[in-house]
Amino acid sequence: MPVTKKFHLIPLDKIIVSPDRNRKKMGSIDELADSISRYGLLNPVTITKTGQLIAGERRFRAHQKLRLESIPAQFYEELDPFEVKAVEIEENARRLDLDWREEAMAVLDYHELRRSRDPEWTVEMTGDALGMERNATSRRVAVAQELRTNPKKFESFDGLYSAYNFIRREHQRLVDEEANTFLSDPDGYLDEVLSEDIEVSELPKKVLQPMRPALGDIHNVTFQEWLEKDWKDEKFNVVHCDFPYGIYHHKSDQGGMEKREGESYEDTPEIFWGLCDVLAKRIDTLLDVKAHIIFWYPTHFYTEIKDYFTAAGLVVDPVPLVWVKSDNTGILPDSNRGPRRIYETAFLMSKNDRLIVRAVSNAIAFPANRQKAKHPSEKPFEVVSHFLQMVVDEHTRFLDPTCGSGTAIAAAENLDAKLVTGCEPNSDHAYNARSWLNKIRVAKLDL
To answer: What is the pLDDT of residues 118-177, one digit of tens each?
Structure first.
């Protein structure tokens, strides 16, 4: 719909297009020309009374393409303040020097300004006015709305497409969260909904509301003991597993465990596969309908572990997550016959296609810093944080069944997980894990 009812029919050859208009790509002029030939021009171009084109270059080029002699135009000098603002925003949204955040906000500003004058104004009409396809326009509007409410959420994104996909995945996880709540307790869920006395038409809004933060704890017991005595039938949507690798690490003179009196643990294949069996048997009862597992594993068990958890009903990404120890630490099994092993690997496994929070690189180089580690097999906070940010957000209920000194627990808490729970039979490690968890919580409160 035209921005003003007062417009003029101006010959195309009387309109001046400045060579330094600094425009983005024009998009499909052919498609716009076809639309104009079928339905006419919905929005006149804007020019000065001296003929200088202010806004509407795509529309002008489409008229040239159709070999029309004139085009509907409005004089910039005759616009009311609202229309002047609309033209300014339209021009701002077309600038080449905007970054993706600024461009998204400019598109949203223009769209909302048009709708304030005309409630029937649509995203498609905004796209037509700005020379954008509908999907491109709607992505910018969606991202800008999120930017306005929580700009810090998007500081780590390098472009609009990745930011939009983050929003889309977040929305899907919220829908999944609501479905998990209903499936786990349909009667209680319906009672809660009905007690709020909301209209049926408002139910979708409930899905988009942020979840209330919750806490969790470190249990000084084994994973199996926790399941038998302390587990309250909670369900988790992210599990971080760093089981003993089953490679007799406790007997190795290179593992460093002999130097950490009272902190070593048995590391036999029986223990490793026993823990795997406990987890696999609880896939349906311990995990939400949709969930992720990050599972650290010894590389020589790659095929067996992949097949084992695939048979248990999980989708196992065959491309591993990799931590390269940049300080070159690691086991050297045979200095005469092979290299030092300075990397560790993890599987990313999913149940029922839970979407990730954000994409990250599948490898990170970071020093092991064994002198500072509080556990003989500790994964650095920075390493687990890198991988966990892929699956943890404020809706995450997080479990680490062998949490050690708590780096993964602390990382999940730092990523705003809704609930964190860990199991650790060594009382010193459990104490360290709980202390670290509390420090993260206190630091967040200070913020």
So the answer is: 888 888 888 877 767 778 888 888 888 888 888 877 777 778 888 888 887 777 766 666
Rounded CA separation 336/102 (Å): 59
CATH of domain 217-446: 3.40.50.150
Q: What SS3 string covers 340-382? A: CECEEEEEEEEECCCCCCCCCCCEEEECCCCCCCCCCCCCCHH
Q: Give the separation between CA 414 and CA 398, rounded to whole angstroms.
A: 12
- Within 10 angstroms of residue 155's Cβ, the number of other Cβ atoms is 7
226-253 pLDDT, tens digit each? 999 889 888 999 999 999 886 655 455 4
Query: How large is the average pLDDT for residues 24-29?
Result: 62
Numbered ranges of CATH 3.40.50.150 in the chain: 217-446
